[in-house]
Amino acid sequence: MAVDEPESSEVADEGSLGLDRVVITGSRISNPNLTSSSSVTTLGAEEFDARGVLRVEDLLSTLPQTLSGESSTSGVSGAQATVNLRGLGAKRTLVVVDGKRLPYGSPINVAADLNQIPSQLVERVEVLTGGATAVYGSDAIAGVVNFIMKRDFDGFEADIQGSTFWADNNNSNIERVLNDFGQPDADSIMDGESVDLNLVAGTNFDDDRGNVTAYFGYSKDNAVKWEDRDFTSCPFSTRNGGTDFSCSGSGSMPANTRYLRTGAGGFDLVVDETTGDLRAYNGSVDAFNFAYGNYLQRPRERYTYGAFARYDVTDNIELFFDFSVADNQTDAQIGAAGLATGTTTTINCDNPLLTSEMQATFCDPSVVSIGSDGVPRAPLRLGRRNLDYPRVAEFGLKTQRFVGGARGEAFDGFDYEIFVQNSTVDYQETILNDVSISRVTRAVDIVADPVSGDPVCRSVLTGEDPDCVPFNIFQADGITPEANNYITTPSLRVGETEQFVFGGSLTGDLGLYGLTSPLAEDGFGAVIGFEYRKDTLSLTPDSADTRTSVRAPVDGSVPVRELFGELQAPLIQNAAFAKELTLTGAYRYSDYYDTTGGQSTYSVGLAWRPVTDLRLRTQYQRATRSPNPLELYSPREFGFGTLSTLPNGLKDPCAGDFDPTTSTAEPFASFEACAKTGVTQAQYGTILDSAGNIDILTGGNEALEPEVSDTWTAGIVYEPSYLPGFVASVDYFSIEVEDFIGSINPSQTIDQCLTTGDARYCSLINREPSGTLFLGDGDAYVDVALINTGHLKTSGVDLSASYRFGLEDVGAPGFGDLQLSYVATVLDELSTQALVGEPAVECAGMHGGACNNPAPEYRHRVSANWSLDKLRAQLAWRYISAVDEYSVNPSPVNDLEATSYFDVSVQYDVSEALELRAGVNNVLDQDPPLTSLAGYGGNENDGRGNTYPSIYDAQGRFLFAGATIRF
């Protein structure tokens, strides 16, 4: 792993690739003799082989500068893989290929999809953290990830690799928890097998004036399921004062029906499996363990293919062409669908399937009302899982990208490039075995047939729905396969994104025209250019009325016209006090003429080498990010949300554990505090606890303004001449994003309303008539629609060092060479401010609550790379520091302990034509740290399976073996 920007030795290596210039990520100016004013971390192609990487996001996730993004471990959140630099969000990280941006990943997530990157063609990856909008345009607030691809390939290469996970499942503490709650404990297992095949072929032609390089890739991953790991075998909650885990689950029961009514005369009942009588719902035994069927690694099948071509028409005109296709298919499987608590709001009291006990309990005369159709009805909420029908979400993403243009020498000392780029992403999502809300409503509205006397749907007699089948949730084993088939329905969403870019630039050496500092040898370098870009996004759902698939249609575009320039000015060279002093600057004007208008971004940097061994660098950048179509145009819609633990240890401080014998619930917060959140005196003490599940109101906002960030970096690079092969660097970073586009965390909204009564928070809380935040059909929710919030800040220090030496230098001749590398990040601050003027929430070293994903204060990767003739071996140590729970009243069991992972690999060149490799990552099968706060959503702001698998290794050991054949 390189630890800094490319040095002169690396520049020499570039010549062997057929490149005539080197451009370090962060600038469009090529001058290998000068030092970059910003830190660039480089991952070489050898890192892919050493870690057996099939997915590039898995390699990037090992960098200390990255936090969680979407990956193969994500839940029902699309088919993408993303990178999230500095924890600022994947949509604030710009991903480019050879300096040209990738399109929106999908119509539900604009972050670039890394699935379209063929790993076998990656020459190196350059990661620049900190704003780079002035150089690359919007979305580069957190930084840029630049994939440099292999080009001018001459020959044929085939690469194949197989891999699998091996988990011991020997966590004795978790075994005890599972035994306590009657849940099965997984045995040792090998699963999640993957295969990866890549073919690359290229040839030079017409006396090397042209080259065509084509590639094809195929990969397939098998699933890893929650129930096949001991620590994900049940969803966790806490017990014993927060000192231990317990198994919990969903309030919608697996094989019985939950009958619930709140308020006066309320109850929460189920049918006793032995007596057939009604009894109180008991969450410890009745809750549904929704772990079964969930994927810890989703099954995936991907095809990639494409070609790079270039041809020198004349000495000054080179035509170039890129074409790529990535077809990615993946499935997500989650717990069985059914009647989520609150699906049905009434029960008809003339229902012939009601037992006498049910009739007396459900249809108490004090709550019965006569509908407009003359039918007596009583309020009733139902909860039941449809276990025979697990929900499966099938995702398809097909990305096509075309880049074409011309470049060459415009005139003496100045090179030009002009290009056009078009990318499209076709998206399809099909959810199978979900439950139709309207069909359930009709299927439980049952009456006696006037002719036969048999139970029949009322809608059959009225002609509203002749196909309706009674859904008998009132008797044991009363649900027929025909009834299940009737209420079960698929849903479909399709959409696309399109990106069109037209741009050009002129890069030159102004020194040829006399613009050279009198104290320097090299002249000033400059770039001027333009770019027109239009990003379009659309999503169209079908008319299915299922809760899982609810998503409103979106359609919108964001066009922008831009002018940019850069200057690299060597001020002093080879002086007694400055071997080098270089000033850099960049400016870009962007006109978002249809949305947010004009905005300027700029940067200025200074690189100083006072002596040969020491380099100092600093840079300031003003960066912006204009809102994307999802943020601007997404309609308001209801969805599921979760509340993280609040000070009371419950979820909604105004609710409690419902006692059906007294029709009361014991709230944690006082009535005076709860009244601020909309609780009435009559509701107080009767509100059902939602077990953390609430309804939220999401949506875009066409009044959004751009985010604006200020980034400061300062660093030192030490490369002592007395110790050849050693280089070390220390870099400070500080990023502050103002007018941060986001929503206020529901937990923070409730907590602030309870404690301060601030109308800005309290106005976002809406309770339905019984006081809950989850039972109302559009009446109960916390508003989390997008706004320009306060700010987001992060700061810290990046550390890196590398030392390469021959073992003969330390008294071991004939034992080859050794390279020791160290790269780390010390996080000092990661804070968010919900609203201007409010205290910020500090998340460095925290997770859960308002902080969501873990933000470790220290991460490192240390590696030792040994080589001897044809043999190479690597040992790596990945370390993540401890992370505490973010809470006023934390549960000790939810603190995440410090975690280490050890990886080993070996490579052997059998001949020039054959290379073999094998390795094991997470050799010791270290379990990830566990928590009850991780949730189950699996997107970049959520954990999954009682941990955070996009940060920690959750599947177990990863074993791989592969071979590369070259002709």
Structural descriptors:
five-stranded mixed beta sheet, globular, single chain, mainly beta, Maltoporin, Chain A, 45% strand, 14 helices
SSE inventory with pairings:
Blueprint lengths: L7 H8 L24 E5 H7 L4 H5 L5 E2 L16 E2 L7 E5 L2 E2 L20 E8 L3 H4 L6 E7 L5 E13 L4 H9 L8 E17 L4 E12 L2 E2 L10 E4 L4 E4 L10 E4 L5 E5 L6 E3 L2 H4 L8 E3 L2 E15 L2 E18 L3 E2 L6 E3 L7 H7 L6 E2 L5 E4 L1 E5 L5 E21 L2 E22 L1 H7 L2 E3 L6 E3 H5 L18 H7 E22 L15 E17 L12 E20 L6 E13 L4 E15 L2 E12 L3 H5 L3 E6 L28 H5 L17 E6 L8 E12 L7 E13 L2 E2 L3 H11 L2 H4 L2 E2 L14 E3 L3 E2 L2 E16 L10 E16 L8 E2 L3 E2 L10 E11 L2 E10 L3 E2 L13 E13 L2 E8 L35 E10 L1
Parallel strand pairs: 4-7, 36-41, 46-49
Antiparallel strand pairs: 1-6, 2-3, 4-5, 6-7, 8-9, 8-52, 9-10, 10-18, 11-17, 12-13, 14-15, 14-24, 15-16, 18-19, 19-25, 20-24, 21-23, 22-23, 25-26, 26-29, 27-28, 29-30, 30-31, 31-32, 32-33, 33-34, 34-37, 35-36, 37-38, 38-43, 39-42, 40-41, 43-44, 44-45, 44-47, 47-48, 48-50, 50-51, 51-52
Gross morphology is globular
The count of DSSP E runs of length 2 or more, i.e. the number of strands, is 52
Task: Detail the poorly predicted runs.
Answer: 1-22, 645-650, 658-663
Q: Please report the distance between the alpha carbons of the first and last residues.
A: 27 Å
In CATH, the topology of the domain at 8-168 and 210-222 and 298-332 and 396-429 and 494-627 and 707-742 and 788-966 is named: Maltoporin, Chain A
Kindly state the mean pLDDT as a whole number?
86
Write out the CATH superfamily name of the domain at 8-168 and 210-222 and 298-332 and 396-429 and 494-627 and 707-742 and 788-966: TonB-dependent receptor, beta-barrel domain
The proportion of strand residues reads 35-45%
Q: Which structural category do the helix and sheet elements fall into? A: mainly beta
What is the CATH first-level class name of the domain at 8-168 and 210-222 and 298-332 and 396-429 and 494-627 and 707-742 and 788-966?
Mainly Beta
Radius of gyration: 30 Å
CATH architecture of the domain at 8-168 and 210-222 and 298-332 and 396-429 and 494-627 and 707-742 and 788-966: Beta Barrel
> How many helices in DSSP terms?
14
Q: Could you describe the largest sheet, including whether it forms a barrel?
A: 22 strands, antiparallel, barrel
